[in-house]
Amino acid sequence: MINKTKILTFGEIMLRLTSPEYNTIEEAHHFIANYGGGEANVAVSLSRFGHDTYFISRLPNNQLGDSAIKHLKGNGVNTSFVDRGGSNIGIYFLESGFGGRPSKVIYNRKYAAITSIHIEKFDLKEIFQDAKWFHFSGINLALGQQVVDVLLQFLEACKQYGVTVSFDCNYRKTLWQEIDPKPFYKKVMPYVDVCFTSPFDAINLFGITSSETIKEKIDTDLLTKLMDTYQIKYLFGTKRTIYTATDNALGAYVMTLKETHEVSPIRFNIYDRIGGGDAFAAGIIHGLLNKEEDLEFVLKFGLATSVLKHTIWGDSLNLYEKDVLNYMQNESGKVIR
What's the pLDDT tens digit per position in 148-204? Predict the structure, then answer.
């Protein structure tokens, strides 16, 4: 099924420090280190699916930056478009939830290298030549005006070179503080072809309103208006039911201006919650690049990719296309011999 494609992702990769054995951050005496970040996670998964993936960012020229580069390269991601400079790498602390206790994240990413990124460090012709896809998320929009300015120039280049753009709204309330995110989200939407979003985003990030009174009709109306406003080709999203922190169900939907598809929820146990949305985005992108004519399959592949990520420790899914296809055919967890 693999149609190998040059894919670009732009964003911040961070050092993740996890308190072990479901311990609280306060009580932890040591932390488990690994690397992750929305767009980097998408690049890793798509690399595993057989694509030529490139991560665009800025990392400090020290051992932490080297380690992040090693993580990316080790998962097949090309890092030739990562600028080196600055002194800090973004860090986040993760406390994994269990049962009725939810997971918690504490960010420490102020003055991270990416916040001092400069467009002059990048050769746009080299980056975008032969590229087919560009992916970014709303987290970039909260990292400062300098990051936003660089992102907008990359998006202009996408228009110039005919590159498909996907955008995961990925709203994180703690990153915005007193700043209204709406103007930032609205500014990038005219460049977006494929959007990962929700009715919540339509209201709170784009100011879309609905005159409907029934929840299901409200949700559909909000998303339809969002698509129509920005002429989005595809809109994807998930619907999560939380029974406990380690027991969830996940369904998914795709909308165009002409049709809507939904797939039934899958209930599963969680080993690591982080990165499920990034895996969904990667699965959808891979599906669209290889089987766009079958949106139901694309949706099921994306959902299966996300569910499988919840069974993998770390930020990114490091399985292959064959693993996802096998899961789609056999969800029992039976040993493969």
Answer: 999 999 999 999 999 999 999 999 888 888 899 999 999 999 999 999 999 999 999
Structure tokens at 141: 């929009």
Direct distance between the N- and C-terminal alpha carbons of the chain, in angstroms, rounded to an integer: 23
Write the pLDDT tens digit of every residue in 212-227.
Answer: 888 888 899 999 999 9
- Of 187, 125, 136, nearest to 164 (Cα)? 136
Tell whether pTM > 0.70: yes
Structural domains in the chain? 6-327 (3.40.1190.20)
Distance separating alpha carbons of residues 87 and 68, to the nearest angstrom: 14
Q: How far is CA 3 from CA 10, 287, 288, in A?
A: 22, 10, 10
DSSP strand pairing (164-168 vs 133-137): parallel
What is the pLDDT confidence band of residue 331, given thresholds at 50, 70 and 90?
low
Q: How far is CA 66 from CA 15, 148, 203, in A?
A: 12, 25, 40
Alpha-helical (H) ranges within the chain are 38-48, 63-74, 124-128, 145-161, 173-176, 182-188, 199-204, 215-230, 276-291, 295-309, 321-329
Q: What is the DSSP letter of 50?
A: T
Annotate 148-214 with DSSP letters as a single string. Answer: HHHHHHHHHHHHHHT-EEEEE----HHHHTTS--HHHHHHHGGG-SEEE--HHHHHHTT-------S
The answer to whether 245 and 259 are in contact (CB under 8 A) is no
